[in-house]
Amino acid sequence: MSRKSVWFVVVLLTFQMLGCGSDEAGAGPECGLDERYNPILDACEPARTLMNNTDDMGEDVSDEVDMGENPEPDMSQSDMPEEDSGPDLPDGLTCLTDLDGDGHYAIECGGDDCDDTNRSRSPSATELCDRIDNDCNDEINDGIDCSFYAHSNTKLYRIDPFKFTTQELGSVPGLFDIDTHPDGTLYGLTSSQLYTYDPQSSMWTAFPNELGVNLGTANGMAIDEDGTAYVTGGNTLYTVDLTNGSATAVGSGNYNSSGDTVITKQGVLYMTSSRTLNTDTLVLVEGSDGSGDLVGATNHRGIWGLTAAWGDVYGLTEDGELIAIDSQTGASTLIHQFGISFYGAASTPNR
Fold this sequence. Notes:
Blueprint (H helix, E strand, L loop, with lengths): L2 H25 L7 E4 L4 E4 L101 E4 L3 E6 L4 E7 L5 E4 L5 E4 L4 E5 L4 E4 L11 E6 L5 E5 L2 E5 L6 E6 L4 E7 L5 E5 L7 E5 L6 E6 L5 E7 L2 E6 L3 E5 L6 E6 L6 E2 L6
Antiparallel strand pairs: 1-2, 3-4, 3-22, 4-5, 6-7, 7-8, 8-9, 10-11, 11-12, 12-13, 14-15, 15-16, 16-17, 18-19, 19-20, 20-21
């Protein structure tokens, strides 16, 4: 066969093959963008089909899922993560604030601690003689006695300097002053006689012996922690034997007793003096020789009763005033006005 004949045969075969391919391509339907033609089924199918865990290219698609357009995760309520609400709170509490560490939660949290900044105030705290509700029950000094003895020229009283109450106990035998022994016994003083008081019968009993010294204007008495009794009269200090009632002069100082003397738990002896001023001054008296040192002006007059109680020094005046006295400066502050003209006052046994 010539070279021209061979070329003609090749061209003819090629034309026939192209013609057959065109017939097959044209026979299939026109598929969409998300589809493709399956020649076996002679139909359009989705672009990915699960058939025998393989696609039409023979690749494993077992783990593939048709998510469609814009898939959304399943966030049903059961699958939502739970919020951490913190520790479980005891019934009635909204928080766990215990700033003072006393084991009680603050009232602001629904607890029972009335002062979460003060460890000495809570329902477990011990009530003390003061103006504070220590045990958080809306009362002060409940269940305890916070009173001291005081008297007028005729009557004996119990005075509460926190609640400002008075309790009349009975009469007095013309006493100038009184004071309490550390054992609780109440003694009374006139210018010539010493007395003891029986709280059961409200009766006073005079010592069989007189003081033995002409005290004249004796008007103040104080008993220290050891049971030693001191008496002031004019500008002289005396001691009194509480077993027989006799008195002994200690010495004199530059003062004039205005009405009372008092001794603190620390053993410091004070008196009020009216020697040079229209108002009384506080004087520190030396118990060994009777000498005195001026502390300062009180700015009150007629302080005829002095008492040391619960760490404080109180004064009671002839005008019925209850005052707090600063033992370092002598300055005094009015606390309350009673309707009683006081003559004297006694310290509490434990001062």
